[in-house]
Write a structure and sequence with these properties.
This protein has 21 helices and eight strands. It is an alpha/beta fold and about 450 residues long.
């Protein structure tokens, strides 16, 4: 580990690996708090190292002090979740003694909204052998030296939780910190595609879209078109998707669509390009073009890649956008089903709470409808459709007074809301309040007449 002023985060990290690792090496790059003392309390060997604006140099110093056969690198804002300990122990017991290998772990980066949590593979374990070293001042990597030495690698299902980018404010702070180091690295290696990738991502985070696009274009110009395979192809697709999204943000819609379609052509099994092309088409209200893309995406089994993305977010928005498409085609039942599936993935989503509740009511799942509709009304108490559907759920569970209150509020909010007027009239009839029922039923009839309404009148 390399650390600086991490007395708050470090205990949680070291506690999470206690009993899993055989030694802890901590290189301190100039802490002014209790970081070194905290590390020693957990049995770590602590070594001071003068900060020289180079994360790779500090990482390589930590390697120099390690004595184990394998090295796991962590940051202070990493944790191995308690539910992963057994998995980690099992993986460790199966480490080969003859052949040296490197290992990719799943890194999970939570966000402020849980369903946006990103997951990706990172090479987190490597053998301690001569020649293995990190490169680059920032966003340092061990991969290049592993590949140069011909060391094979394997993907594992051990998960590390990286909490350092959970808040947008943290992302902005780190982006501004990294920018100077990235520009220095670019001056040293102007043809390094990885540096252009990180510069593009950094400028995007701080809102400088034009600069971000220029570096994405530079990155792609350094990649031989159509010659990459496997993991390298994943990053090529990611770069095209990123550039397509930037073009869209800059109002260059035609270039955005062309770039995103090129990404899809490179790898039709990659869900990321399909997702963002569909997003662009939905924004353009090109629902008929988006629909087949979303239908194929809906059926994909989303894998974890080296490129970080949120599998849950892809599934969530896929269902939401499919619902939008079906609505424009007049297929309400299909739209409601998709909105309900979206709500299952992201329970805090309330934008279509009325429709999701309606789906569950039609499906006979009154308890689920109540759960969704009460949450929707709590988030938006001025939605007459949600109030009207909640009243139906209350009525079906015998909560007549609450149903009437909801319907009266819905009608007050929108005096011409057909469903609220009709449902209120039916409810008052049910209670024998014939005179009171007449007014909402007649108002509903002026908007639209149907068989149930005619029978009630």
């Amino acid at each position: 580990m390399i650390v600086k002023n991490e007395e708050k985060d470090l205990p949680l990290c070291l506690q999470s690996v206690r009993g899993l690792v055989d030694e802890i090496i901590v290189v301190d790059t100039g802490s002014e708090d209790r970081t070194p003392e905290v590390a020693r309390e957990f049995g770590a060997k602590v070594y001071p190292f003068k900060w020289i604006n180079d994360f790779a140099a500090a990482r390589n110093e930590s390697i120099r002090h390690a004595t184990g056969n394998y090295i796991l690198w962590l940051d202070a804002d990493d944790r191995i979740p308690s539910q992963e300990r057994e998995n980690f122990v099992r993986w460790k017991q199966e480490l080969p003694t003859s052949e040296k290998r490197a290992y990719w772990f799943i890194v999970e980066s939570p966000k402020e909204e849980e369903f946006l949590t990103e997951r990706c593979y990172q090479m987190r374990v490597f053998p301690r052998v001569e020649g293995v070293r990190f490169i680059r001042r920032v966003h340092e990597s061990i991969l290049e030296s592993i590949n140069a030495l011909g060391i094979p690698s394997s993907y594992c299902d051990v998960t590390i939780r990286h909490v350092g980018y959970a808040r947008k404010a943290d992302m902005h702070r780190k982006a501004n910190r990294n920018l100077k180091l990235l520009l220095a690295a670019l001056a040293e290696a102007p043809d390094d595609p990885t540096i252009h990738w990180h510069l593009s991502m950094t400028y995007n985070v701080i809102g400088e879209k034009e600069k971000s696009a220029r570096h994405a274009e530079s990155l792609l110009s350094l990649i031989p078109d159509g010659k990459l395979e496997g993991e390298e192809r994943q990053w090529q697709v990611a770069a095209l998707v990123h550039l397509g999204n930037l073009y869209a943000d800059l109002g260059r819609g035609k270039e955005a669509e062309k770039t995103l379609r090129k990404a899809m052509e490179l790898d039709r099994n990659n869900p990321i390009s399909a997702f963002f092309l569909a997003r662009l088409l939905i924004k353009q209200r090109a629902y008929s073009k988006a629909l087949p893309i979303l239908q194929r995406l809906r059926e994909k089994d989303l894998q974890v890649y080296q490129v970080p993305y949120s599998q849950k977010a892809v599934k969530f928005y896929c269902h939401v956008w499919l619902g939008n498409c079906y609505e424009t085609l007049g297929k309400r039942a299909e739209a409601l089903r998709e909105y309900a599936l979206a709500s299952e993935i992201n329970p805090s989503w309330a934008e279509r709470g009325a429709e999701v509740g309606e789906f569950y009511l039609r499906d006979g799942k009154v308890g689920k409808a109540l759960e969704v509709l009460e949450r929707a009304v709590k988030i938006d108490p001025f939605n007459p459709s949600a109030l009207s559907n909640l009243a139906l759920a209350y009525r079906r569970t015998g909560r007549i007074e609450e149903a009437e209150l909801c319907l009266r509020k819905a009608v007050q909010l929108d005096p011409e809301h057909f469903d609220a007027l009709a449902n209120l009239g039916h409810l008052l009839l049910l209670q024998g309040k014939l005179e009171e029922a007449t007014s909402p039923l007649r108002k509903a009839a002026l908007i639209r007449m149907d068989a149930d309404l005619a029978a009630a009148l």
